[in-house]
Fold this sequence. Notes:
single chain, alpha+beta, two-stranded antiparallel sheet, 12 helices, elongated
Amino acid sequence: MLSCDICGETVTSEPDMKTHLLIVHMENEVICPFCKLSDCDQPLYDCPMCGLICTNYRILQEHVDLHLEESNFGQGMDRIQCSRDLELAHQLQQEEDRKRRSEESRQEMEEFQKLRRQYGLDNSGGYKQQQLRNMEIEVNRGRMHPSEFHRRKADMMESLAIGIDDGKTKTSGIIEALCRYYQNAATDVKRVWFSAVVDHFHSSFGDKGWGCGYRNFQMLLSSLLQNDVYDDCLKGMSVPCIPKIQSMIEDAWKEGFDPQGASQLNNRLQGTKAWIGACEVYTLLTSLRVKCHIVDFHKATGPLGTHPRLFEWILNYYSSEREGGPKVVCTSKPPIYLQHQGHSRTVVGIEERKNRTLCLLIFDPGCPSREMQKLLKQDMEASSLKQLRKFVGNLKHKQYQIVAVEGVLSSEEKVARRQASQVFTAEKIP
């Protein structure tokens, strides 16, 4: 369709447009530009598009043809330019999409590598490599004598060879010292319950930054090994070193425990700095026929993101009766493995204060031996307990998981729990 530039009328072909221009827009009466008379015999024809006056009709037709060709050429150029603009816009959009996908892929890879580093799956070595590297740094900075380096290296290699922890980060006797302290002091405490005897283990050069789960397992196991109830399933065991614990968890995976968890860690822990949590501790204990279960406090149950239900559960775990009885209760209950995002600790007791508030007593593997040994002094000060005490307002992570030991499994119960671990579930509160 062609549109008339003068009146806007549309026609279907160029011949029709010519006819339209010549018939509709030709003036009936024109003044001769040469003699200035309206009745001049000289025939005059003016171009309806530009006003040019011609005395020859054929010349006027050729002149109008030029106008039409020019108009068609301009419209064609507009269509070509529009097509080019659309193509360019499409190319720019494609390039923008490619850059966006590339940036998203790069960020995803960075996050993935960050998580691999955070959880010790970046192939940067494990306990042995980190221990040696950090001791070399200490030597280079003048904080360790070369002879001390070689002595510690030899001790570490011996510990790794036999699979038993060297005890260099262990502090024993704390529970007994706390019982004595509470008998004679802590006047603001109405009653306090303690777990069975447990040794404290803290992180070393070899596992700093990732070994809390393994150290808490060592604490829990140290208590079970001193309890006659578990002699049958833990016969002949000693507290293992971290690489040995990794090997034991891998063996449990090979037995068929927790295949999903094994898959997430590529079925490999030895030689890595991979973190472990409540599921791995449960898997290892169950493979040893230690009866335990996981409780998931998956959301806050108190104001300001607190977890009072967690404190109540732990109180019920340690206390069979609330009223009467002595101020200090030393139970035979094993300590509790306590996990939250990024860290884990060991609950060794709970206070009920005279104002009815509750306070957990917690061993943290991040606390060094020199601080824990302050608790062994005969004249221990109340300020030394600050590192152990955690009130309701101190535990405000979004989610907590605990592993609580309940006794010994029979061989049949172990098989049943192995089968149940194919799809891991935990008791949820609330």
